[in-house]
Queue: 3 jobs
Job 1
Amino acid sequence: MRTRSATLAALVAAGVALAPATVLAAPTPTPSPGSTTVTKAGTSFLSATPVAAGQPVRVGASTGEYLYWSFTAGAGEIHEINATVSLAEDRGGSSTWAVEVFDGLRRRQACTAGAQTPTADAAVSTVAIGCTLRRVRPWAEPWSADPLPGTYYVRLTVVDVPERDLGLPIDVDLLISATGDAGTAPEDGKLEAPLVPPAKAGEVLNAVPTAPAEDEEGDGWNLDLTGWLPEAGSRWIWTTAGGVLAAVAGVFGFALTRRPATR
């Protein structure tokens, strides 16, 4: 130990510069070449704007709005959501932003990495938000919340902000990246159908519904008692018959046991 310390001290004294250790940073997701930029976002699950993996998103919105996008995930894929929000300059205080991901059954999916709920001080101009999802499984038990193939929804909004800052303009840059299924262990199962709920909001009926035709022969005073009568062999018939027999037996027994009146 002393020999190593002495050698290091000698190198420093001789003016030999020690090279610092190289730190490998995580690769930053980049848009796919030739992809079209999406310039809008939905305001609910039903109106979520579809986005493909690697397709950049840039929209203008207001502070306090809920922004929704949807993307399709396949078995074995790992998706990473990265968003940057450019904030207004004349803000009154700090704000906390959040990105949430839901599967096709509206179940909230957990993030394994990334700043999911960062807080931006009043002095900063941008805030970075990120979420890395778990690997999508080809199948899972019905009671589990494991990510399965199908449609996923991304929701971006502010969760804590001064009231005076609500409505201020913001710019959102979002990118969803997907990695392949290399190294995934095979599983002996397959999902029968992707988790894509049927959504037919605002469906217009072309045909006008017609009211059921009334009985022309009836005068409106005919009473149908078939629905009020109990079925044959039901417990109500046996209970009624038992009550009648008990009443008759009581009267007959009273007539046999009462004493004759004396004058």
Job 2
Amino acid sequence: MSSRFGMRSFTMLASVAVIGAVTLSTGATAHADDFSEKKPLLKGSTTASYYWDDASGRNGDTGLPASGKPMQKGLAASPSWPLLTEGYVIYKGKKEPFFVGDRGPGVPSNRGIMLDLDAKTFASLTGGKFNSSSLTVDGVGGQGHIKIEYVITKWGPGVGKKNHPVAFSTGAWSRKDAKPATPPVVTAEEKTEKKDERPETPAAPAQVAKKAPEQAPEKAPEQTSAQASEREKAPQAELAAAVTTRETESNGVGGLALISALALLSGGMFLARGRIRKAFDR
């Protein structure tokens, strides 16, 4: 990373007037949540390094970024794009927004390293962790360069090349570009892919006339085993009672008839006792 700083101090002196005007005329940077939904103005790929300049003088720190913006997540250095250009990078499917707030890398841009990401964005893309003491990224095995895709969504208002990046040594960063790149045409397949990435909104349920629910027959209350046993015995008891009553009634009638017959027999014998004696006397 240290080799990128060779041209930084020279750049600061050469472009201080232009930078001051750009900084005063520009507002917020590119950190909107919908950054990837903006129309692309340029697409490409390159190798990206990382750095963190906070004016602390640590790890080759050359001072505050050239734009005058404080060092922060999302601030990147470009060797040729206009300051305050906005866009996002893609690494292994992960997207992170950035804006051009500095110049660089210097000499590394001659070797095809055309973007210097801030250390926090680099850590987010690679799964590492920013070390605030050493201003480096831990947990990536010392990795300092990654292959990324870039998408530009807004060009900065100042000087610089509004096209694919070129090395810092070309001086394109200091010249006004009157012929920016033609925005790429978004194909139908890309539109479909982007649509598929969005979560689908569940369709409203169809309005169907609902039939009134049929009322289920009332369920008899649950019975305890004792109650069930009593209910089973009830018909048998009623039958036994009826039989007993009938037998009692029958026995009562028979008893009365027998008593009546005995009474008549006794009365007849009493009345005929005289005749009976005479019969025995003969």
Job 3
Amino acid sequence: MALTGDIAATYRGPGRVVRRLLSMGRREDRALVFLLLACLLMFVAQTPYQARLAHLDPDVPLSARLYWSALLWIFFLPLFSYLLAALTWLASRLARAGVSGYAIRLSLFWALMATTPVALLAGLVAGFIGPGPGLQLVGAVWFGLFLWFWIAGMRGAGGGMADEQG
């Protein structure tokens, strides 16, 4: 299925989509592409807000704001995501949950990827309306969807991938 079709299907059943992705075999390159594409789209989502800030405060030019935003979203978020996946894997081992490290990484990275449409909406709200209740609502929706997709993805992975280490 196409990436956009998988994203739409995730809103109907995130566990099924992650289970199907896992059934395609262990492909670290696929998981990494999901993560990097999600991070790139998160950076793009922040561009309207950075432009708004540059317009309101011209002391810091837009190019500088975009540089630091890119560093955060495209460099540090992938590192943080791998760290979060590793900590989750350690917690799952302590809890004796039957989820492999790969299934945790894939479900985390896919949750980021699948929530990018809402992140893009949040970027538009931040850029055109600015901080306020609307942005807080969209941010809360994004966070709730992210947690739902990630947890449902790990549950969908179940014990089927438990025998694989890492």
